[in-house]
Amino acid sequence: MLSILAAALTVTVSLDGDVLVLERTVKQGFPTKDSPVPPPPPPARFQFFETDRLVRLDGPMKGTTAEFIRKDDGSIGWLRVGSRIHIREHD
Questions:
Q1: Which of 18, 23, 67, 87 is the most exposed place for a label (fewest CB within 10 A)?
Q2: Is the pTM higher than 0.70?
Q3: Fold of the 2-88 domain
């Protein structure tokens, strides 16, 4: 399991067979921090189509691409989904 952080949410990436599952946990409301926290969206299933590149398999955002971005040492440092980039939580 891999956790990716953003200001308002955490994305957890796990493996289910040959599919990666991205689950988002919303940490604060939007458009302000005082807004109610919405329920989490359903998990998103992704599959590799190239090294470190993924495509969403279903749902309203089917076809959305994602990519793991590696640090100089080869470890995963970030996850980009669409135009948003999220930093990996330190282990």
A1: 18
A2: yes
A3: Lipocalin (2.40.128)
